[in-house]
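Re: [ENG-882] Designed sequences occasionally contain unexpected residues at chain ends

Forwarding the minimal case from QA. C-alpha cells:
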C-alpha cells in the first residue's frame, strides 16, 4: 500500500529507510564531533605533560647535577624537598613525595643512572599513569 507524501507516492518502508539514513548521519556527525574534541583534549594534555616535564627538569637539575644511581637520586630529591623554602608543610609532603619517587623508579632498570631529564621522564610518566 502506498502513501502520498508531498505529492509523491511513498511506501511505508521508504519512510523507514529515510529515518534510518537520518539516524546514521546523526551518529556519524556525533562521532566526528567527539573525535575532534578528543584530539583537542589530547593535544592539550600533551602540552600540559610537556610543560610539566620541562618544569620538573628545571627543578631536578638543581639537585641532580650529574648522573647518579637510583638511591642517590631518591635521597637528593628528598633532601631538596625538605630544604626548599617553597615547599609548604614539608614534613607532611616530602615523605609522600619520596614514596612516589621510589615507586616510579622501581619500575626502571636497577642500575640505571639518572640525570635531571631521565629522573623527570621516569617520575612524571609514573605519576601520569597512576
Amino acid at each position: 500500500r502506498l502513501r502520498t507524501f508531498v505529492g509523491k507516492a511513498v511506501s511505508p518502508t521508504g519512510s523507514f529507510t529515510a529515518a534510518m539514513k537520518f539516524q546514521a548521519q546523526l551518529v556519524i556527525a556525533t562521532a566526528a564531533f567527539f573525535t575532534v574534541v578528543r584530539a583537542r583534549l589530547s593535544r592539550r594534555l600533551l602540552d600540559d605533560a610537556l610543560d610539566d616535564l620541562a618544569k620538573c627538569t628545571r627543578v631536578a637539575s638543581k639537585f641532580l647535577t650529574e648522573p647518579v644511581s637510583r638511591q642517590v637520586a631518591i635521597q637528593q630529591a628528598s633532601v631538596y624537598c625538605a630544604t626548599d623554602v617553597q615547599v609548604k608543610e614539608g614534613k607532611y609532603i616530602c615523605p609522600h613525595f619520596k614514596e612516589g619517587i621510589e615507586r616510579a623508579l622501581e619500575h626502571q632498570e636497577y642500575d640505571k643512572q639518572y640525570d635531571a631529564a631521565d629522573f623527570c621522564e621516569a617520575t612524571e610518566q609514573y605519576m601520569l599513569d597512576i
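QA comment: On inspection the terminal residues look reasonable. The longest strand covers residues 3-5. Proposing we downgrade this to a documentation issue.
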